[in-house]
Structure formats: C-alpha cells, structure tokens
Automatic annotation (TrEMBL):
It is an enzyme of class 2 (transferase). The lineage of its organism: Bacteria, Bacillati, Bacillota, Bacilli, Bacillales. Belongs to the Cob(I)alamin adenosyltransferase family. Residues 3-166 form the Cobalamin adenosyltransferase-like domain. The keyword Transferase applies. This is Corrinoid adenosyltransferase. It comes from Ectobacillus antri. Its EC number is 2.5.1.17. Coiled coil: none annotated. Pfam families: Cob_adeno_trans (PF01923). GO terms for molecular function: corrinoid adenosyltransferase activity. InterPro entries: CblAdoTrfase-like, CblAdoTrfase-like_sf, PduO-typ. Keywords: ATP-binding, Cobalamin biosynthesis, Nucleotide-binding, Transferase.
Amino acid sequence: MKLYTKTGDTGKTSLVGGRVDKDDLRVEAYGTIDEANSLLGQAMTLLTDKEFESIYKELERIQHELFDCGGDLAVVKNKIPYKVTEDMITFLEKRIDVYITEAPPLERFILPGGSSAAAALHVVRTVIRRAERCIVALKKEEEINEQVLKYTNRLSDYLFALARVVNAKLNVKDVEYERSAIVFKDKNEK
C-alpha cells in the first residue's frame, strides 16, 4: 500500500459523495477536528500516571469519537448512516456533572493553565471551540449531522471541567482572572 495517492495534487480532496477543494468549509471543519484530536493525543501523554488511568481511557474513547465527528463531517450526501449520536453527548454531560464535584467551586473565569496536563487540555478545548465555529459556518451552507455540533459544544465544556480536575488531583490551584466578575453561580442561589 502506498501512503500517497497524488489525487490531491490539484488542490481537491475526496469526501463521501464527491470531491471538493481542500479549502472547502467541510474540509476546514473536519481538519480542525483532526487537529484537536492530535493535540488531545499529545495531552494524553501527560496523563499516564496510575491516578489518571480512567481519565486516559475516557480520552481514548473521545479520540475515537472525534474520528466519528470528522467522518460525519466528510459526508457530502448522506449516503451512509451518521456515527455521532445523542448517547455520545449524554456521556460527556454525565462526566461533566461528575467532574464539577471533583474540583473546587468556581465563581470566576480562570486562566488556562496550571499543570502541564491541564494546560494541554485547555489548548485542545480552544481548538474544539474553533472546530465548533467551522461547523456552524458549514451548517449555514450545507446539511450536516447536527449531533456533531452538539458534541463539539459539549466536548469543550468537558475539557474545561477535566482540566480543573487534573489541576485539583495534582494540587495545582486554578488562577482566577483578576478582573472577572462572579460569572458562575449555583443554580439554587438567587
């Protein structure tokens, strides 16, 4: 098997259902997902201690799901069933709810960073936010699997919550943004 095909030498690439320019919104969207997935793999190299074993497995699951997101975004005409489902989003929501209880209470914006692992997760979070913006732009022009947009939105929240948990497990305090008002309130507070 050859790794190179030369079919993209003219600036076009194949998708499920057709060929498009390599700067097409679809390619930009799934390319940004691919970038985030690569950065997630890099972040995972910082989470190999025994105490992060379950988190590492979760992130590996998410890497597979990011491939699913990219695959769904690469479908020009819905000729195959989509892979990203509501169940994947529900999983992220459940994990976010758990992680919120494992980190110190949060009232203000925080600076991305802390430990190396948390900082790397924040980088992935921001790339996922960029992917989300690309998906929104694509959705304005073409049909997409709406679950991918929901998934990326929830994934960025998950990564934020997880970065805070990683800092907490490593006894590294999040640094609050100095000029932040109180922006996070308990739902039960008035």
